[in-house]
Design brief:
This protein has 210 residues and is α/β, with parallel strands linked by helices. It is 57% helix and 11% strand. Bound molecules: cytidine-5'-diphosphate.
C-alpha cells in the first residue's frame, strides 16, 4: 500500500506520515529531506540556487541513508530547498529514487507525492492547517531543536514558501483530485492521527467492497 501525504509547510504531514508508517509497518520517506539535501550540497559547494547544472548534479548524488535529519531540518535550509525544488530538472532527477523507495509499499510525505510521484497511490491525504497555527507549531519545533526564531519570521517564511510552492510551474503544491482533505487547525497530533487512520481504513474497506 502507498500512502501519499502532501501539504504545505508545517501542516503536520511529517509527524502524521511517521505515525502512519509505524502503525501500518511501512517504510517512511520524508521527501522534503531530498530537496533539503540538494540545497545543502549547493550551499556547501558555494553554488547559487539558480545554477541548474550544479543543482542537478547535487540531486543525482544525494544519498538518503547518510542524511543527518536534524541538520537538514534547519530553518535556513527550508527556503533554499523551496528554491531548488522549483527547478524542473532537479525534480525529475529525484523521481526514480522516490518511486523505488515506494516499490513494496510505503508512506511518503511531501508536496507532489499524490499528484506526480504516485498518482495511483491507494490512499492520498492532503494535510492543511491555518498559516498562523502552522507558524506556531514550527516556532515551537525550532525552539525545541535549540534554534529559536521569532514567530513573525517563521510565519513570513511559511507564507513565502507556500506562495512559491503553489505557483511554480513544476509539480506545484496542490491536492490531487482524489485526495482526502485533512485540516489539522483544531486537531492535536493524536486526533490528526486518528482521523488519518479513519481515512485509510475507509479507503481499504471501500476497496474490498468494490
Ligand atoms: O516541513 P516543511 O514544509 O518546512 O519542509 P519540507 O517538507 O522539508 O520541504 C521543504 C521545501 O522543499 C518545501 O518548501 C518545498 O519547496 C520543497 N519540497 C518539494 O518541492 N517537493 C516535495 N515533495 C517536498 C518538499
Amino acid at each position: 500500500m502507498i500512502i501519499a501525504i502532501d501539504g504545505p509547510a508545517a501542516s503536520g504531514k511529517g509527524t502524521l506520515a511517521k505515525e502512519l508508517a509505524r502503525y501500518y509497518r511501512l517504510p517512511h520517506l520524508d521527501t522534503g529531506l531530498l530537496y533539503r539535501a540538494v540545497a545543502k550540497a549547493m550551499v556547501d559547494a558555494g553554488a547559487r540556487f539558480d545554477e541548474v547544472d550544479a543543482a542537478v548534479r547535487a540531486a543525482r548524488e544525494i544519498d538518503p541513508p547518510s542524511f543527518n535529519e536534524k541538520e537538514l531540518k534547519r530553518a535556513s535550509l527550508a527556503d533554499a530547498a523551496s528554491l531548488v525544488s522549483a527547478i524542473p530538472e532537479v525534480r525529475l532527477a529525484l523521481v526514480s529514487l522516490q518511486r523505488q523507495f515506494g516499490q513494496k509499499g510505503a508512506v511518503l510525505d511531501g508536496r507532489d507525492v499524490g499528484t506526480v510521484i504516485f498518482p495511483d497511490a491507494e490512499v492520498k491525504i492532503f494535510v492543511t492547517a491555518a498559516p498562523e497555527v502552522r507558524a506556531r507549531r514550527r516556532a515551537a519545533e525550532l525552539s525545541e531543536a535549540g534554534e529559536p526564531m521569532p514567530y513573525s519570521d517563521v510565519l513570513a517564511d511559511i507564507l513565502r514558501r507556500d506562495e512559491r510552492d503553489t505557483t511554480r510551474a513544476a509539480a506545484p503544491l496542490k491536492a490531487a483530485p482524489d485526495a482526502h482533505l485533512l485540516d489539522t487547525t483544531y486537531l492535536d497530533i493524536d486526533a490528526a492521527f486518528r482521523a488519518a487512520v479513519a481515512i485509510v481504513e475507509a479507503v481499504r474497506a471501500g476497496r474490498k467492497r468494490g
